[in-house]
Amino acid sequence: DGGITQSPKYLFRKEGQNVTLSCEQNLNHDAMYWYRQDPGQGLRLIYYSQIVNDFQKGDIAEGYSVSREKKESFPLTVTSAQKNPTAFYLCASSIRTVLYGYTFGSGTRLTVV
Amino acid sequence: AQTVTQSQPEMSVQEAETVTLSCTYDTSESDYYLFWYKQPPSRQMILVIRQEAYKQQNATENRFSVNFQKAAKSFSLKISDSQLGDAAMYFCAYRTPLNTGNQFYFGTGTSLTVIP
To answer: Which of A14, A86, B41, B105 sits a CA distance of 20 to 30 A from B48?
Structure first.
């Protein structure tokens, strides 16, 4: 079945450490996105990529980094510069040229301990 | 950046009754798309319904329908014959056209409780 796989489902990080969240899709979608979800704030865009080897900052990119070396993969690194990283992270993908909705992954819950 | 406002943090409805969730948005563009997403306790985001701004006819998907008022920049979701499985967080979303970033902007969500 086609879809988006996010791993791990739960992730714990010590303060000062970098951590990478995985997002893989087999839908042949061009565009991929990372969102952060906090209670009462909805979803906020961190980074997005329309094509391989190209990505743009979203509204809250500080303290995060991404790469898009393959069409199927869009990993997100939460760096030690992100001051409040505890949140739920959602990855999404879409066909770039057709304005359908996103397909979302099941999310990763990151907790700083 | 575009803004999407959901003014009802929480709503409740009796099973089998009808409920309407509100959404307004701010944009200067004429061509865009609007969506409603459902997020149940599993936290998996599920597309409920979408509306193209150039279409005057309101979108309908089974028990879900929208009231799209372009001039008022309003996009409400009506759920008819509410079921227990409709209990979830509902997010309104605005999508910019391809030539202006092709991004989604989400509201803060409305938590819907269905009372048996």
So the answer is: A86
